[in-house]
Amino acid sequence: MDTPPTAGRPVRGRPLLALGLVAALLTLAAVVWASLLFGSGDVTAGDVVRGLLDPDLSVKGQLIVREERIPRTVAGLMTGAALGLAGAVMQGVARNPLADPGILGVNAGAAVAVVFGIGVLGLTEPGHYIWFGFLGALLAAVLVYSIGSLGREGATPVKLALAGAATTAILTSLTTAMLLRDRMLFDRFRFWKVGSLSGRDPDLLLQALPFIVAGVVFAIGLGPRLNALSMGDDIARALGQRVGAARLAAAASVVVLCGAATAIAGPIGFVGLIVAHGARLITGPDYRWILPYSLLLAPILILVSDIAGRFILQPGEVQVGIVTAVLGAVPFIILVRRRKQVEL
């Protein structure tokens, strides 16, 4: 059912929005090129081209492109697309402008489950990381919603944000405790824990790719349902939506996307929050456009943050999760302090 967007809000013309998507796609292509070209190590444009098409691994620049930059960039694309869509879906289904996989504890749940599986159960197969990420994301989402629903008011935006912050703090502490008890595990995962794209295992990316693709396709198809849900349950039912089924479908897409993204790059926060609001400023309230914009804008944010992190503290690097946290903290504080909640 093709549900109209929220009433009373301006809707931009489709040709202009389609042109914006093309511009976002071209920008993403430019950022991908920059991600392959810039960073530590002497890499030229020719090295990038040959590293993509027919690499000579005896040439240092082509070796860097093939072994480090390509997996890193692919990880950024996959993680960004997953977190951007997950944030937009969460904001739509919860009618909560503060919703974000990092803020509401979903990423922290996936992270603690992955670290538990590796550090305590001794898992080594990349495919196992994905399943533990799904399980952790699901349990964290259920826990946050259950806590936020306590009381007569139900799951209000502020209560969900507070429940998510408390859950994130607890789960992050558990993750840190597991890492500190094993020095080798800590050395291996200390950068992953703060969100990193460097040193990604190509096997893990291949294992996660089908889940990311499935989650993206599923989430994009939720646009009409999210339009209805954003207007309230009663209106959604009047428009013929099965509210319970729609919420379950949205939750499933968020769990798949967040679980896979966290298994790849660790718990990266604020991406969904920033991107969903940025997309809404461009498109208006129609989730049929917010979702594809989020799909493109989030990888741009992730890769730009990663590129910036390569130069901030040379010859070292600042992990992408730290950069996105700095970028996302200000908008989050502004949203929390606003007396009137943002209308979705």
Automatic annotation (TrEMBL):
Membrane topology qualifier: Multi-pass membrane protein
Membrane spanning stretches: 16-38, 70-90, 102-122, 129-148, 160-180, 204-224, 244-277, 289-312, 318-336
Major localization class: membrane
The protein, known as: Iron ABC transporter permease
CDD domains per the UniProt record, alphabetical: TM_ABC_iron-siderophores_like
Any one of the GO BP annotations: siderophore-iron import into cell
Leader peptide range in chain numbering: none
Family: Belongs to the binding-protein-dependent transport system permease family. FecCD subfamily.
Subcellular location as annotated: Cell membrane
Any Gene Ontology CC annotation: plasma membrane
Organism: Streptomyces corynorhini
Keywords carried by this UniProt record: Cell membrane, Membrane, Transmembrane, Transmembrane helix, Transport
InterPro entries reported for this sequence: ABC_BtuC-like, ABC_transptr_permease_BtuC
Molecular function via GO: transmembrane transporter activity
High-level lineage: Bacteria, Bacillati, Actinomycetota, Actinomycetes, Kitasatosporales
